[in-house]
Structures are given as structure tokens and as C-alpha cells.
């Protein structure tokens, strides 16, 4: 079993655009430093069993914080953060074909 938590915490990186994306998706207005602190805390607090690798991404789901982080497994770059309740709304409101 891979220990994604240690590797991600050691190597996580951010692009300039991801800070605005995280603020927008989580309806926040945090500084870059506060976003980094928040992401690190979420990763630290999340049980390793909630780290799921699918394809090139690792999804970190923290139900207590109502958040899911998406991290590229090759670069350890954070891609986005989503509120779980909004993800659930999107999947339940999909139109049927």
C-alpha cells in the first residue's frame, strides 16, 4: 500500500491559478498562505484510507471538513478543492439521456 499522505505533504506544490480556483470553489477569500495552511491541515487530519488514486489523480476526501482535494499523483500539484455537498448535488442533478 502506498503512503500517499507523507509523499504529498513532502512534495505538494501549487500554481498561481489554483489559489483563485480554491477560493472560488469553496466560496472563500483566503490569502495564498492561508490556503496552504488549510490544505496542509486537511491532508494531515484525513485518514490515509480516504486517499484514493484514480488514474493520474489522488482524491483526498475529508467528510468532517466537507471537502475533497484533487492532487496530480505525478507532480503532487494540487488541482482543485470541492465541497462534498456540491459534488453530491452535481451527481444527483445530472440530466438523464
Automatic annotation (TrEMBL):
InterPro entries: DUF3781 (IPR024229). It comes from the Bacteria. This is DUF3781 domain-containing protein.
Amino acid at each position: 500500500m502506498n503512503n500517499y499522505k507523507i509523499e504529498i505533504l513532502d512534495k505538494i506544490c501549487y500554481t498561481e491559478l489554483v489559489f483563485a480556483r480554491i477560493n472560488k470553489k469553496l466560496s472563500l477569500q483566503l490569502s495564498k498562505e492561508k490556503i496552504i495552511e488549510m490544505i496542509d491541515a486537511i491532508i494531515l487530519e484525513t485518514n490515509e484510507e480516504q486517499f484514493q488514486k484514480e488514474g493520474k489523480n489522488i482524491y483526498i476526501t475529508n467528510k468532517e471538513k466537507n471537502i475533497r482535494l484533487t492532487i496530480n499523483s505525478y507532480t503532487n500539484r494540487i488541482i482543485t478543492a470541492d465541497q462534498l455537498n456540491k459534488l453530491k448535488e452535481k451527481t444527483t442533478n445530472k440530466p438523464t439521456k
